[in-house]
Description:
Layout: E1 2-7, E2 10-13, E3 18-26, E4 34-39, E5 46-51, E6 57-59, E7 67-74, E8 78-85, E9 94-101, E10 106-108, E11 112-117
Amino acid sequence: QVQLVESGGGLVQAGGSLRLSCAASGSIFSITDMGWYRQAPGKERELVAGVTSGGSTNYADSVKGRFTISRISRDNAKKMVYLQMNSLKPEDTAAYYCGASSRVRDYRGQGTQVTVSS
Length: 118
């Protein structure tokens, strides 16, 4: 089992920045890809950014150039993933979830709320 705990959400004005962090614990040796998802009220969950075990990244078109995903993998002692969010817009308001994949299943954290005021 893998546990994911997010932190760093909050309320920010449009144009501001936030940095989300996600710490993985448990059977972290099994983790391959990690990423961030978000879900706004009344909308489907979407992938915001992902990073593979090899360091390749991908982003939703709506956040390209504004968000940056990064990860720390120190062998099997520590795995963390970050999401640096700059130039935030009101439409970025959502619950943000950390996700991790292993060969047998996917995991998701409890989420952290990001609210961007206009």
